[in-house]
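Exam review. A common question shows you a sequence with its structure tokens and asks you to describe the fold in words. Practice with the pair below. Do the first one on your own.
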Amino acid sequence: MISINEISYSIVEEMLDFAEDYKIEPHTLANDSVVIDCGVKAKAGYEAGLLFTQVCMGGLAQTSLTHKKLKHEIFYPFIEVSTDFPSIACLAAQKAGWRISQEGFFAMGSGPARALALKPKHTYEVIEYEDDYDFAVIALEADKLPNEKVMDYIASECGVDASDVVALVAPTNSPVGSVQIAGRVVEMAIYKLAELGFDTRHIVSAFGSAPIPPVKKDAAVAMGTTNDASIYHGSVTLTVDGGNIKDFVPKIPSSSSKDYGKPFYTVFKEAKFDFYKLDPGIFAPAEVVVNDISTGETYIAGAINADVCMESFGFKKL
């Protein structure tokens, strides 16, 4: 069985070896755990963001940058993500499935360490995946760095020593935050299918792209902008082998949600910032193309909505 923690740890080693090049700041805590600042105080950028995304996906994805049209004549940076292990990379690793709240520290946890802690356990039962490795690698979306007690908690949940835990940390409103959240465009499609009851193990390969949203000063606004990058401009192509995928395709895009049509921050504000009042179906890419190799058919659903994306990004022409 592939070990996503082992693969990710090799990426982390490269980041540590070239910390200055990636403009990240590693810290070894008193319990010998390692915290890598990728945007709290560090000035990390695109390259660190691409590696952060790869770690989130358990090392089972390729990430790259490209420059293409956001709307009409406006060119803008996009992240492109591809994986031949979509179920494991997206659900076993990248899914932000671990809410960490310890000692006044709060973060959403992603990455391969989740597979050791089984957060949440049901996810791993459904896709029949388990990992067993001596090191745990976690990616945290947070605006401050975890202390020893937080890292001790993560180590305990993962069943490893604190000295064998590495945490990558980046705030939502940071360059790395923008890159890694846009890099969840494929995960949005895979997660949506899983929630709809589709067996994601039928997905052979996945590719996606989304614009890297501008960094906002306010974290709440940034949460909206980073989600809108995929909701209104994310494009995903899936290669699937059976599973009756045709019945699921129309339900994948964000346009199938009742909350579709306005910038996410606006919808969230109207819901009085209560996630439980939101339709979870909104967390999906704008468009999907699905090739079912068991039938040779290809299906499409959804469409790019550049206008809402531009409104969310808040571009101002001078």
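Now try the second one, then compare your answer with the model answer below.
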Amino acid sequence: MAERKGRQLPRRWVVSAVTMSLAGVATAAFGATRGHSGDGAGPSPATSPASPIPTTPAVDRIDQASTRIRAYLRRYDGRVAVAALDRQGAAEVTVGTRRFETASIVKVNILAALLLRQRPPGRALAADTRRLAEAMIVSSDNAAAEALWDRIDGAGGLIAANRTLGLRETKPSPHWGRTTTTAADQLRLLTALTSPTGPLTPTDRTFVMGLMKKVIPEQRWGITAARGSGNPSAYVKNGWDTADADGGRWLVNSIGRIVEPRHDWLVAVLSDHHVSQQEGVRVVEKVATYVLKELRAATAGDGPAPG
């Protein structure tokens, strides 16, 4: 099947919410005391004008944004799923549990499996293997993917690697491109590839992100459309193909990372049942853009994330 061209809340939110609640209790108690012991010469502090207390702390705004995102995706009748996470905070949303064929986004998973097999961990790939890895990610070369699929021992090797990577909903197929996955599992993969506490060494994480940043211009669509202002860095891998089981309609997927001021987004959008690749790309980009627009707005007043 060759490709066709064509969380636990952040501490600052919890502290903010608790502080606001305590402030409200203290104000009410103080007002009640003055009401009983005051001399009636004027209004008690409880009834005097005061600075308004925000009624939508960040916790509520994220929840409201998630509700709107779910409503937005209902128009696609379950044929689109999305997961997004801000590594600089805890803004996170996952909508859709359906399993989709990966097409070429699985190539990132294959590369991660290949790197996990290196001994000692972090050892540089041999020159020929490195060239294959670069071709597989940067230009989505299928022959390179086939060669590396064999080197990780195919589906069995991917299953073993995914235990280490924390993936729970990805089912490898004998043909790598027909592997199935969920948006949530792709977010777990991206997290494993970027987290300092993940299973890959810093050198390996840099290598994977470096290749995803170098993807050729004609393949840099998808989640990159959601980039905001401030000259963000974007890392992406896309997958696209037709599905015989779906009457030859297109499946179009995009996973990656957008690093911008105050945010470090990990995003996965999976979709199928499109009449054309172009239509699938349009839908994926609209969804990614809408989701990050909502999450940016929901976290706009939070201030800098802790380092």
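Model answer, second protein: Residues 4-55 have pLDDT under 50 and may be disordered. Residues 243 and 249 are 6 Å apart (CA to CA). Full marks require stating both points clearly.
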